[in-house]
Design goal:
Blueprint (H helix, E strand, L loop, with lengths): L9 H9 L7 H11 L4 E5 L5 H16 L14 E4 L3 H14 L7 E4 L5 H8 L5 E4 L1 H10 L9 E4 L2 H6 L3 H10 L5 E6 L4 H10 L4 E5 L9 E7 L5 H11 L5 E4 L3 H13 L4 E4 L5 H12 L5 E4 L1 H4 L9 E4 L6 H8 L9 E7 L4 H11 L4 E2 L19 H13 L10 E2 L17
Parallel strand pairs: 1-6, 1-7, 2-4, 2-5, 3-4, 5-6, 7-15, 8-13, 8-14, 9-11, 9-12, 10-11, 12-13
Helix pairs in contact: 2-3, 3-4, 6-8, 14-15
Length: about 425
C-alpha cells in the first residue's frame, strides 16, 4: 500500500516522497481515511508509530481542497485547524511536520507556546494563519489578548491527550473547547485509553470512529532493554563508564527532577563528556538550542526530565538511559519510546539502585515482561545498603490532575470501532511523522 491510495493531493505526495517515505504505518493506514471522510476520530497509538502524519497529511489535504471562507471577524485572522499539544517541544515538532508536508500548498502555519515573548506571536497572528499548533496555556493568553480568532476552526486535534490530563490541562482544554464552533471535526490521539480519556472524548467527539494500534503499554520490539543494578552513589560513574566503553555518541538520559538533571550535567562535564539539560526551568531558547545541537550530533548527552522530553522526535536515536526510574511506570514506556522508532533498532538502559526495586517491579508488571539484569564488574551493588524513600511528587500531581479530569461531563457518544487491535512496528513515516 502506498500513500497515493489515500487520494491525497499531488503536492502532498510530492513532499512525502521527498522525505523518502513510501509505505504508511498501521496508524496512518487507519487514521488517514477516517480524517479525510470528515468523521471525528478517537485514536490510540504508542509513541513513534507515525500518528502525527496520520492527522497532518489529511488535514493539509482537506484545508487545501476546501479553500478559505471570508467570514472572519475584522482585525483578527481566523484559524482553520487547531492542534493542541502538552509541551513546547512537541508543538514545535508537529508544526515542523505541517510545514514539511505542506511545503507545496498555499497554507500557512505557526506554533505558539510559553517561555518566549508573546509580542512576536501576536504580530505574526495578524497575518493569515491556517493551521495553529499551540500549548493550552499560551493559547489562552492569546485569547485573553484577543489576538487569536477560534470561532472558525474547522478541525481540532488534541494530541497526546493522556499527557494533557496528567499535566493538569483539563480545565484549560474545557475553556478552549467552549470557544470553538460546535460544528467541527475533532480528533483525539492518546497513548492510552483511560477512563478519563474516554470521558474527555465523550465531551468533545461526535460519534467518533475508534482505532487502536498496539496493545496498551507494550514496548516496541525494536528496543532492547537492560537493567544495570548499581548503588545510588555510583550511578554517575557507571554512566560515564558505559558511555566510554561502548563509545556512545548520542545518549538521551532521563532524570526525575530539574535539580538532578543540572547536577548530572555538571558531573558529566567534569568527566569531559559533553552534556546539556532540558527542563522546565530552562528558557525556551536554551531548550531549543540544546535539542538542535543534540539532533545534529554535536552534543553527546542530553539530560531531560519527563515533561521536557515528552514528544521528542530524534532521528535514529540509538540510546536512552534511565538514570533514575520514573515514579509512574507508564512513563517508562514513554521514555524508551524515544528510541527504536521507525523500525530502527534502539537500546534502553536503566541504572537501578536498591531504592528503585519496587519501581522496577511495577514497570515489569506493566509491560508484562522481566527485564534483563547485568552487573558490571567494578560496580557490583552492596547488599548491605538499605533502601531510602523516593519523593513521589509526580504521582501526587497526576492524582490531582485526574481528579480534575473526572469533572468532565460525559455524554452519550457511541464509539464505532474499526480495525482490529494489533501489535505493530513503527515504519515509514513513524520517525518524522509522529
Amino acid at each position: 500500500m502506498s500513500f497515493s491510495t489515500f487520494g491525497l493531493s499531488d503536492e502532498i505526495l510530492r513532499a512525502v516522497n521527498e522525505r523518502g517515505y513510501t509505505e504508511p504505518t498501521p496508524i496512518q493506514k487507519q487514521a488517514i481515511p477516517v480524517v479525510l471522510s470528515g468523521a471525528d476520530l478517537l485514536a490510540g497509538a504508542q509513541t513513534g508509530t507515525g500518528k502525527t502524519a496520520g492527522f497532518t497529511l489529511p488535514i493539509l489535504h482537506l484545508l487545501s481542497e476546501r479553500g478559505r471562507s471570508n467570514t472572519a471577524m475584522p482585525g483578527r485572522t481566523p484559524i482553520r485547524a487547531l492542534i493542541l499539544t502538552p509541551t513546547r517541544e512537541l508543538a514545535a515538532q508537529v508544526e515542523e511536520s505541517v510545514r514539511e508536508y505542506g511545503k507545496y500548498l498555499r497554507l500557512n502555519s505557526m506554533t505558539i507556546f510559553g517561555g518566549v515573548s508573546i509580542n512576536p506571536q501576536m504580530q505574526r497572528l495578524r497575518s493569515r494563519i491556517d493551521i495553529l499548533v499551540a500549548t493550552p496555556g499560551r493559547l489562552l493568553d492569546h485569547v485573553q489578548q484577543r489576538s487569536v480568532d477560534l470561532s472558525h476552526v474547522e478541525i481540532l486535534v488534541l494530541d497526546e491527550a493522556d499527557r494533557m490530563l496528567d499535566m493538569g490541562f483539563i480545565r484549560d482544554i474545557r475553556r478552549i473547547l467552549a470557544l470553538l464552533p460546535k460544528k467541527r471535526q475533532s480528533l483525539l490521539f492518546s497513548a492510552t485509553f483511560s477512563e478519563e480519556i474516554k470521558t474527555l472524548a465523550d465531551g468533545m467527539l461526535d460519534h467518533p470512529t475508534m482505532i487502536e494500534i498496539a496493545r496498551r503499554n507494550l514496548t516496541a520490539d525494536t528496543v532492547s532493554q537492560k537493567v544495570y543494578p548499581v548503588d545510588r552513589d555510583k550511578k554517575r560513574q557507571l554512566l560515564t563508564h558505559l558511555i566510554r566503553q561502548h563509545r556512545w555518541t548520542q545518549v538521551l538520559v532521563f532524570m526525575r527532577t530539574k535539580h538532578g538533571a543540572d547536577r548530572l550535567v555538571k558531573q558529566l562535564t567534569e568527566d569531559r563528556i559533553q552534556a546539556l539539560a532540558i527542563h522546565g526551568n530552562k528558557s525556551q531558547g536554551a531548550r531549543t538550542r540544546a535539542l538542535a545541537e543534540f539532533k545534529d550530533g554535536g552534543l553527546q548527552v542530553l539530560v531531560a526530565t519527563d515533561i521536557a522530553a515528552r514528544g521528542l522526535d530524534i532521528n535514529h536515536l540509538p540510546h536512552v538511559v534511565n538514570f533514575e526510574l520514573p515514579n509512574v511506570p507508564e512513563d517508562y514506556v514513554h521514555r524508551i519510546g524515544r528510541t527504536g522508532r521507525a523500525g530502527v533498532d534502539g537500546e534502553a538502559v536503566s541504572l537501578v539502585c536498591v531504592d528503585e526495586l519496587k519501581l522496577l517491579a511495577d514497570i515489569e508488571k506493566l509491560i508484562k515482561q522481566p527485564l534483563l539484569k547485568e552487573i558490571v564488574a567494578g560496580f557490583e551493588p552492596d547488599p548491605k545498603v538499605k533502601a531510602e524513600p523516593i519523593p513521589n511528587g509526580r504521582q501526587q500531581r497526576q492524582g490531582q490532575s485526574r481528579s480534575h479530569a473526572s469533572e468532565q461531563p460525559a455524554s452519550r457518544t457511541k464509539h464505532k470501532r474499526t480495525g482490529a487491535r494489533t501489535d505493530s512496528r513503527p515504519s515509514a513515516l513513524g520517525n518524522r511523522g509522529r
